[in-house]
Structure formats: structure tokens, C-alpha cells
């Protein structure tokens, strides 16, 4: 079972879609919809103007308060073809009522319409997002709650867990639905590529997969604005909203802007500063690879980048964030500052060391201070590791050890 939440401003357009207004001239036996339930709505189906009367009833509660965005609620509930034999109108209605109760769609006019134009059983719920008391029904816009409710009902009734479009086998689909799902799957694959950082790259990547993406503009001259994107595969075309929110112009602009900023930050964090060989352009340190002919290990380089002191032979090396230069000393700076020696650290000096020291009991803090004084040549990193090794077994240090 899958619940798909839609948003809309027009009750009339929604009901026209649910009741397939274009099929009115066809015989009733050829129609692909029928109403299975309603509340607070006059439904004189077949009579002239019946849709207008029904819309008036559904939207009536919205007139009792100031206007809200998307007053027309529309949710489709889809079920697996494997559950078709069980999905009678009564059983589908029972599930729809349970879903509405859990999603807070109560005390409001609604219409539930079942469609029979797809392989999988499904129904549509149209309702007013303002209830009979003039209060807005807010939980219905919560996508996480929708997912949890669908999972709960699926488990409760032993239904087949729904499959999203990304995992559908398109060979089992037909017509426009197959084309739409193929576009969704291809566009999702392209958008997952973090190297795609602008519209031309996105469009060209889709073209290589047989999909044409055209931007549709409105207005002229200075008033010309991007309205939507039309995705086309073969003879079938879809506006961006039918493919998914992630593929609308606004969403793509946000995604590409974020990726461009991330790419620029990555470049600055990995490009040496021409004026200072010890830092990148963003000011982050570049770890030395050797000192005095001795190779510096990758572990030591990581400690250096984190701002820790490293020991190479008899020398102590650390990065000074004020001068943006490496500092070298014969003396261990960790023993002569508030950064080490088992003493409380200055805020943010070395989070890992601070967490290590903070997790020790008072007894082991005293033991650690004595240990540091007996081993003045050890850096903070070396002292942590050696103390864990020497004292972890015999003294059963806390869980952090």
C-alpha cells in the first residue's frame, strides 16, 4: 500500500479528474470510476450540474475562515496487483477509513472514488482541508506520517508492501505510465551524480538516456521567467510536477547551487595557497610528508591536520593556526599548556582528547596525571593510546577505554 499526497487549490478540477468528466458521454459500463463513499456531499450523479453541487458541499467549510493555501485535499491510495483478489469495494473502503482516521482526516466533507483503469487497485480521496469546525487539517501534509501510516496498515492487514517508482519493473508497465516511470528512474540516476552541477549538464545527461528536457518560459523581455520543465520520452511528454518535486525548476536550481558551492569549497580545501605552501586556499593546514629525512606516517599527518602535536624523532611539530605555519620544538608543548598533561582542556582544543579525559573516573584522572608526568615525551595522542594499552586490562577502565 502506498499513499500519495497531492496539493491543489481547485475542488472542481480535482473532482473532474476523479470522475473523468471526459467520459460523461460514454456508456456507464465503460467508465473507469465509481464512488464508493462520501460524507456531507450531495451526489446526484448523472444529473445536470451534479459536480458543481458536490464541489459546493466539499468546499463549504473553507468559506468559514480566511483563505488557506491548497484547501483541496487529494490523496490516492494504491495497492499491489497481488492484493487484487482481496480488494473488494468494502475492503478498500475499510482501509481508506482507517487511513483517514490515522491521518487526522475527520469531521470534514469527503468523496472516495475508486478507479479501475490501472492494473493495480487504487482509490482517490478528495476532501476539505478545513473541517466542519473551521480548523485546518494539518497532519495530512506530513509525508513522514503518511509513510508510517501506510506501513502500519499494510502490516496490520498483511498487504503487499508498496514499491516506489525507482524499483518498478518498467517492462510490466504500458503506455504513458511506462514512459513516466522510465523518465523518473533515468532522471533520478542522473541527479544522483554529484558531478552534475548545472542545467546543461543535467539536460545532456538525460539526452544520452533518450530523454529530452525542455525549459518552458512565460512572459516576454524582462518579464520572461522559467515556468516549468517538459520531460519527453518518445511520443509522451510530462510536466516536471508529474515526474517529481525533485525535478521542478526550483528544486533543480537549489540542488545545483548547493553542489556548486560544495565543489568550490572542496576545491579551496584541496588547492595549496600560492602565497603559503603550508595551507590550502581556505586556510586549512597541509600536512608535511617528511622531517629531517624521516617520513611522516599517514596517521601522524591526520593528527597534524586536526591540530595535534606529532613527534618525529626528537622533534615535536604542530600547526599554529595564528601564524598559519608549522612549529617545531625540542620540548613537548602538550606538557606545558592547557591542552594536555591530563589537565582540563581549553574549549575545542582537542575534542577526542577532551572526551577521553572527561570519561575517566576521578581515580583514573589522578592516575593519568601521574602517567603523563612519568612520560613527558608523549604527545596527547600517544599518551591516550599507551594509557589504554597499559591500564585498560589490569584496571578495567570505563567503557570509553
Summary?
The chain is α+β, with helices and mostly antiparallel strands and about 400 residues long.
Mean pLDDT: 86
Assign an overall shape. elongated
Lateral arrangement of strands in the main beta sheet:
1-3-5-4-2
What helical percentage do the residues reach?
A: 25-40%
Q: What order do the helices and strands follow?
A: EHEHEHEEHHHEEEHHEEEEHEEEHHH
Question: Mind summarizing the main beta sheet?
Answer: 5 strands, antiparallel
Low-confidence stretches: 338-348, 393-401
H/I helix tally: 12
Kindly, what is the distance between the CA atoms of the first and last residues, rounded to a whole number of angstroms?
47 Å
Q: Hey, roughly how much beta strand do the residues contain? A: 15-25%
Rounded to the nearest angstrom, the radius of gyration is: 32 Å
Helix- and strand-based class? alpha+beta
Q: Count the strands?
A: 15
Written account of the structure:
This protein is α+β, with helices and mostly antiparallel strands and about 400 residues long. The chain is built from 12 helices and 15 strands. The protein has helices spanning about 10-20, 50-60, 90-100, 145-155, 175-190, 200-205, 240-245, 250-270, 300-305, 350-360, 360-375, 380-390, and strands at about 1-10, 35-40, 70-80, 110-115, 120-130, 210-220, 225-235, 235-240, 270-275, 275-280, 290, 295, 310, 315-320, 325-330. A 5-stranded antiparallel beta sheet has the order 1-3-5-4-2, sandwiched between helices. Strands 6-7-8 form a 3-stranded antiparallel beta sheet. α1 (about 10-20) crosses α2 (about 50-60). The longest helix has 22 residues, at about 250-270.
Amino acid at each position: 500500500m502506498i499513499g500519495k499526497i497531492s496539493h491543489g487549490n481547485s475542488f472542481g478540477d480535482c473532482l473532474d479528474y476523479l470522475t473523468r468528466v471526459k467520459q460523461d458521454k460514454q456508456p456507464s459500463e465503460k467508465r473507469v470510476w465509481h464512488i464508493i463513499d462520501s460524507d456531507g456531499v450531495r451526489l446526484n450523479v448523472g444529473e445536470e450540474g451534479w459536480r458543481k453541487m458536490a464541489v459546493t458541499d466539499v468546499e463549504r467549510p473553507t468559506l468559514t475562515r480566511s483563505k488557506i493555501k491548497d484547501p483541496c485535499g487529494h490523496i490516492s491510495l494504491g495497492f499491489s496487483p497481488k492484493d487484487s483478489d482481496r480488494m473488494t469495494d468494502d475492503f478498500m473502503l475499510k482501509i481508506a477509513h482507517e487511513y483517514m482516521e490515522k491521518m487526522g482526516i475527520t469531521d470534514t466533507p469527503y468523496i472516495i472514488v475508486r478507479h479501475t483503469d490501472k492494473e493495480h487497485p487504487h482509490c482517490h480521496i478528495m476532501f476539505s482541508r478545513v473541517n466542519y469546525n473551521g480548523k485546518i487539517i494539518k497532519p495530512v501534509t506530513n509525508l513522514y506520517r503518511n509513510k508510517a501510516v501506510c506501513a502500519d496498515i499494510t502490516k496490520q492487514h498483511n498487504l503487499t508492501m508498496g514499491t516506489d517508482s525507482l524499483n518498478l519493473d518498467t517492462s510490466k508497465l504500458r503506455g504513458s505510465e511506462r514512459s513516466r516511470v522510465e523518465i523518473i528512474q533515468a532522471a533520478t540516476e542522473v541527479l544522483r551524480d554529484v558531478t552534475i552541477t548545472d542545467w546543461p549538464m543535467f539536460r545532456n545527461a538525460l539526452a544520452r538516456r533518450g530523454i529530452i528536457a525542455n525549459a518552458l518560459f512565460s512572459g516576454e523581455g524582462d518579464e520572461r521567467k522559467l515556468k516549468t520543465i517538459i520531460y519527453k520520452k518518445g511520443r509522451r511528454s510530462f510536466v516536471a510536477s508529474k515526474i517529481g518535486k525533485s525535478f521542478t525548476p526550483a528544486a533543480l536550481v537549489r540542488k545545483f547551487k548547493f553542489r556548486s558551492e560544495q565543489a568550490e569549497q572542496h576545491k579551496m580545501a584541496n588547492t595549496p595557497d600560492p602565497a603559503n605552501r603550508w595551507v590550502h586556499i581556505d586556510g586549512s593546514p597541509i600536512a608535511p610528508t617528511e622531517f629531517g629525512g624521516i617520513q611522516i606516517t599517514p596517521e601522524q599527518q591526520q593528527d597534524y591536520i586536526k591540530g595535534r602535536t606529532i613527534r618525529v624523532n626528537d622533534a615535536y611539530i604542530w600547526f599554529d593556526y595564528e601564524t598559519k605555519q608549522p612549529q617545531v620544538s625540542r620540548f613537548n608543548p602538550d606538557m606545558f599548556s592547557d591542552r594536555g598533561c591530563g589537565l582540563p582542556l581549553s574549549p575545542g582544543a582537542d575534542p577526542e582528547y577532551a572526551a577521553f579525559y572527561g570519561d575517566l573516573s576521578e581515580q583514573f584522572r589522578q592516575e593519568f596525571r601521574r602517567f603523563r608526568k612519568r612520560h613527558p615525551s608523549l604527545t596527547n595522542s600517544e599518551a591516550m593510546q599507551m594509557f589504554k594499552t597499559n591500564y585498560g586490562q589490569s584496571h578495567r577502565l570505563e567503557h570509553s577505554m
